[in-house]
């Protein structure tokens, strides 16, 4: 019985919600009809007369205060709405209306939407996972001590955000620590050092870990029965301590390279020892995984040091050897470092070979892969490309391939062309990037702008063709053309990754919400009324009373007009017209 009553109440509620959703005009006319029927019991005419008499007694100062207060309040609302929109990309009033008022007026229930989405199968789940914004480690990230800190010393600005550095700390704890670190004093110290927020505390902890390893332990070895010889054995040095010092304490790339070479010596020994013991248990396996990550990181950073110091061929050889030795470790994206170094050597055939391996439909894309492929195809036609000639004779096959490659790259990341064409100023790239976001565009353009400039006519071809991409992408972005729809969460993540002094590039451009335009118009209109009322109080008072009379009922219109006319006569001191004897009697 209780279930039947509950079902009846739910059905009644759904009927009322449906009627408010689709029959609101009928409800509106019903309310108007009830007001008309009950006009006599409610004494609507008398109330209107009282209100009209009260408004007629108001002075112009009241209207000045009223319009001024309205302008001030609407201005404050406008400022708050604009700040909220710039920070979060949506309207506060609209968000509150959607989240609180829509359920009351019959909005879509979340449970029903979840059920409908679950019934769509794997396609919806795949689409949702693809659109999820994932932050990636920047494969070309700079050195904190030798590059980021030097920028801070010169400009006084912080190039890295707290969110970005926090992600780096999490990466270091994932790659450079394991569960057995508490068994080794130096590794236990470094495990705490990676969690430190203060850079000086981290550096001090790294020096402490190295000092512990300088302690010599004596091992007793009985060589002769009557005597004992003490063998001096050095404990293995802590490779992660050298990594931290090379990243944060070294002020030049040369100093960082020296520290990384010491880290390589220590890390290689730890890797070989753990490789022999990895099958003895899960603890040894985790330690070997940690040592592998440390060794790969050290060799990759050594290759990047060689690239920074101008030894590009040596850097290419180190990267190739590293990719051959550890082919399964794709999380570091070493191929992107290799592509940049090969472009510096102008070894375009080798670049094409790398792209043929990694520019595959089953592998995740990046701006480096897409724009490097576009650069190679543009290189074949850019030196002779002319927009005027192309408009007369049409595009050749090679030019069409180059334009399609540029359109493909722009669709993947539409923020890159503005940096390559120097329409926006570059900043130092962050340590983490967001695929298809502004942070990835900065990281790509920072290192690859010189390669585009080196190819004659490549930037000219990009300038003439990149905007044509947006005519091919459906709007609104319900689906993509060559890739998945552009995610809507890139702006929020990029604002967390990029420093506050950088203007984040947003795609697609968001239109101003209705409530911002409404509050701007309301603020301007009330401010204009306040100014006019202050300058011309008599005329604006007459105008206000006239507007009030327009909305009054027909029975009160004559009386209101007469009172307004008498008020005007009193204020303007108009002499009364001569009256006839018949009218006086």
From TrEMBL:
Localization, UniProt: Membrane
Record bears the keyword Membrane: yes
Pfam families in alphabetical order: ST7
The keyword Phosphoprotein is assigned to this record: yes
GO cellular component annotations of the record: membrane
Main location: membrane
Membrane topology: Multi-pass membrane protein
Record key words, sorted: Glycoprotein, Membrane, Phosphoprotein, Transmembrane, Transmembrane helix
Regions that span the bilayer: 20-42, 62-85
Family: Belongs to the ST7 family.
Protein name: Suppressor of tumorigenicity 7 protein
Gene transcribed to yield this protein: LOC111152004
């Amino acid at each position: 019985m209780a279930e039947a009553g509950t079902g009846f109440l739910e059905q009644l509620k759904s009927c009322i919600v449906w009627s408010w959703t689709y029959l609101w005009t009928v409800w509106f006319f019903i309310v108007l009809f009830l007001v008309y029927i009950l006009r006599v019991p409610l004494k609507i005419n008398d109330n209107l007369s009282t209100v009209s008499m009260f408004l007629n007694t108001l002075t112009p100062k009241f209207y000045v205060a009223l319009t001024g207060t309205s302008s001030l309040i609407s201005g404050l609302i406008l400022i708050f709405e604009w700040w909220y929109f710039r920070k979060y990309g949506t309207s506060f009033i609209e968000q509150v209306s959607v989240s609180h008022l829509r359920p009351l007026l019959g909005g879509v229930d979340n449970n029903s939407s979840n059920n409908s989405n679950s019934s769509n199968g794997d396609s919806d789940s795949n689409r949702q996972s693809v659109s999820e914004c994932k932050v990636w480690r920047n494969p070309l990230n700079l050195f904190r001590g030798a590059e980021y800190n030097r920028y801070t010393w010169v400009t006084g600005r912080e190039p890295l955000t707290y969110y970005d550095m926090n992600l780096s700390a999490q990466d270091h704890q994932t790659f450079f620590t394991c569960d057995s670190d508490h068994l080794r004093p130096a590794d236990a110290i470094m495990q705490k050092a990676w969690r430190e927020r203060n850079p000086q505390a981290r550096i001090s902890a790294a020096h402490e870990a190295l000092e512990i390893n300088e302690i010599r332990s004596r091992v007793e070895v009985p060589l002769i029965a009557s005597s004992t010889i003490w063998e001096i054995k050095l404990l293995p040095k802590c490779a992660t301590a050298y990594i931290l010092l090379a990243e944060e304490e070294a002020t030049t790339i040369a100093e960082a390279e020296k520290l990384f070479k010491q880290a390589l010596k220590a890390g290689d020994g730890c890797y070989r020892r753990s490789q022999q013991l990895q099958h003895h248990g899960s603890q040894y396996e985790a330690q070997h995984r940690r040592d592998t990550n440390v060794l790969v990181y050290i060799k990759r950073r050594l290759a990047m040091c060689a690239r920074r110091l101008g030894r590009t061929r040596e850097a290419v050889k180190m990267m190739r050897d590293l990719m051959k030795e550890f082919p399964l470790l794709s999380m570091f994206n070493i191929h992107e470092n290799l592509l940049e170094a090969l472009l510096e050597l102008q070894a375009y055939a080798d670049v094409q070979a790398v792209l043929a391996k990694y520019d595959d439909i089953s592998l995740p894309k990046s701006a480096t892969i897409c724009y490097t492929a576009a650069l190679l195809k543009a290189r074949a036609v850019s030196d002779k490309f002319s927009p005027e000639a192309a408009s007369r004779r049409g595009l050749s096959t090679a030019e069409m391939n180059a334009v399609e490659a540029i359109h493909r790259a722009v669709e993947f990341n539409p923020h890159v062309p503005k940096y390559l064409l120097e329409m926006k100023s570059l900043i130092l790239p962050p340590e983490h990037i967001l695929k298809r976001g502004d942070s990835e565009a900065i990281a790509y353009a920072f290192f690859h702008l010189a390669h585009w400039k080196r190819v004659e006519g490549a930037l000219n071809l990009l300038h003439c063709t990149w905007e044509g991409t947006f005519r091919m992408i459906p709007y609104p972005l319900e689906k993509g053309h060559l890739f998945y729809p552009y995610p809507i969460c890139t702006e929020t993540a990029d604002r967390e990754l990029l420093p506050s002094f950088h203007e984040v590039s947003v795609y697609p451009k968001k239109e101003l919400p209705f409530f911002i335009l409404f509050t701007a118009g309301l603020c301007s209109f009330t401010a204009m009324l306040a100014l006019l009322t202050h300058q011309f109080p008599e005329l604006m008072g007459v105008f206000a009373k006239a507007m009030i009379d327009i909305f009054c009922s027909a029975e009160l219109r004559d009386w209101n007009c007469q009172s307004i006319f008498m008020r005007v006569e009193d204020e303007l001191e108009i002499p009364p017209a001569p009256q006839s004897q018949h009218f006086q009697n």
